[in-house]
Each structure stands twice: as C-alpha cells, then as structure tokens.
Amino acid sequence: MYNKLPAFICVLAIISLSACTGATVRSAARSQNQAYQAQEAVSAQRLEFVEKYQKCVADAGPDTQKVEACDVYLRSAEALS
Prior knowledge:
By secondary structure, the protein is mainly α. The protein is 89% helix and 0% strand. It has helices at 5-60, 64-79.
C-alpha cells in the first residue's frame, strides 16, 4: 500500500493543477470576451457620433456657424479613438 502512495499523490497533484489551469484559462477567455464587448460598444458609440456629425453638417448647409456647432460630434468621436 505504501509503495502506491507516491503515485497516488502525483495523480492528485496533476488533477489539481489541471483543474486550476482550466479555471485560469476560462477566466482569461471570459476577460477577453468582456474586452471585445467593451471595444464593440466604443466602436458603436464612435459610429453614432460620426453619423450625427454627418447629418448635422448636411442639415447645416452653407451656414458655417451651424457647421462649427456640429464639430462637437466629430470631437466626441475622435475622443473615443
């Protein structure tokens, strides 16, 4: 019985390490997924600002003061870059 004890301890150690590694990998994958989702949300917000800027400029026509007022959307989009 005592000659099998070291083998049993090794097997337990391997199982424990693989369980920890699996949890670490899952945690890293979850973190990466959350980072991708955050990047997607920022990109969507940036696109929304660009679209608002384009619409604002189109609606402003030749009025330079209105066009300058539209710059707030463009600066907001650039700030998210």
